[in-house]
């Protein structure tokens, strides 16, 4: 069970600490306990309730009315109010609350509603991506457990795979050819899956090799497939001290292709990129790069 200070609640929910105290004292929406040194601490239930209350109050509901709702009434009201496709902050708060409750049907409904209103790519960029960033912070601080993080990751993975399957197939001889893979030992696949979707949606052909790809196999892949570009995401692999060597080796083995290196390991140190390599810092940079490489006709 999580244990939060009021500053934790402020950073997670976006609600100022003095407002949280007022809601607590005047309306009793939270039930903190005090430590032996008389410091308020809050539990998972307090955080879930605060996120739901903040979502409804952000929609214009009066706190005096919201405070009277039961947990089930709160959850139902949040789903009903998250209908503005451009109110990303409210949608993200609703998703966080559903994650903390491990409410998979509600997560599904919220994501499907956003996709229906915004389109898939816009939903990923405006809702799912910042939502996953918040989940990452919560996981690092111990505010959510591994099961909750896995629930979210696998649900979004399913959405990306399903959306990719709806795209019109592109023949390799009629478009730019890409190879996408993760290094050997790397399992963080969501960014690569979305890159696969985005490229296919733009008319590129993608040879998707997925997770845990040995680098010594890539030279043979390049010889047979002759890709225009090769993309990978470096999140946890290789070790920081080996990233430069990995880049250099890949550039030698795939000298005729443009190499696209993305991920946290590319921005945590100063690296020297070979002439045939690029490093889009943000996913928006990668999408812009993909747009520039117009498919061959």
UniProtKB/TrEMBL annotation:
The keyword DNA-binding applies. Residues 1-72 form the HTH merR-type domain. Keywords: DNA-binding, Repressor, Transcription, Transcription regulation. It holds the Pfam family MerR_1. Signal peptide: none annotated. PROSITE patterns: HTH_MERR_2 (PS50937). This is MerR family transcriptional regulator. The lineage of its organism: Bacteria, Pseudomonadati, Bacteroidota, Cytophagia, Cytophagales.
